[in-house]
Amino acid sequence: MVYLPKHFAETRPEILAELMRRNSFATIVTHGAGGLIASQLPFIYDAEAGPRGTLLCHLARPNPQVEDLRGGAEALVIFAGPHAYVSPNWYETHPAVPTWNYASVHAYGRAEAIEEPAALARLVGRLADIYEAGRPTPWRLADQPESYVAGMLRGIVGFAIPVTRLEGKFKLNQNRSLADRRRVEAALRADPDPLAREVAALMAERAGE
Fold it and tell me: Which of 120, 119, 109, 106 lies closest to 162, judged by CA?
């Protein structure tokens, strides 16, 4: 479980879903016979599939994590959102120490393998359609030669992970005074790093909370 002080907890499903969709290249962690293992993968979060939604992904068949997931091991998927360093010089109240503001979501569940070729093709096609959306000439799985697609599908295993628990942590200086939070937000908004500006936007959204 993630260390989650109450004032940093985010439980609203729509907020958690938005962070997962915007930061869909995530890390899946399992613990099996070989110990801990992690893979970085693009995920689809289907909020309508099941009480807490379902995560969809695929791995290369030789990846040893495939056997952990097939075997029913609990999986942790970590979605890392925007993050930024916070200097104590930005605070009105002193003394203070440096810290880091960030947003993340941890999703837990046990995987169900997707290996039937038609179902696997739908998963891969759906994933491609999401990332190709808006491009002038989108790449489509359905346009590829059948023999090529069949070979590609033989090399991967898909997984559906019905989510059993979602934990959102939005650490945005909620433990500081309103004046300090406003000063940090202003400093991050002026930072050239786009991630810092995203953190500032999250802080602005929660200014009245």
Answer: 109
Alpha-carbon distances of 50 from 54, 161, 185, rounded to whole Å: 6, 10, 37
Interval 160-171: pLDDT, tens = 999 999 999 999
**What count of other Cβ atoms lies within 10 Å of the Cβ of residue 97?**
7
> Which ranges of the chain does DSSP label H, i.e. alpha helix?
13-22, 65-70, 117-132, 146-154, 178-189, 194-205
pTM attached to this predicted model? 0.95
- Tell me, what CATH number does 56's domain have? 2.30.110.10
Q: To which H or E segment does residue 26 belong? A: strand 25-32
144 in a domain, yes or no?
no
Number of folded domains in the chain?
A: 1
Structure confidence by residue, pLDDT tens digits, 15-42: 999 999 999 999 999 998 889 999 999 9
At residue 80, the 3 state secondary structure works out as: strand
Q: Which residues, in sequence order, are CB contacts of 41 under 8 Å at separation 6+? A: 25, 26, 27, 28, 57, 58, 59
Other beta carbons within 10 angstroms of residue 112's beta carbon come to: 14
Instruction: List the one residue out of 158, 156, 121, 157 whose CA is nearest residue 142.
Output: 121
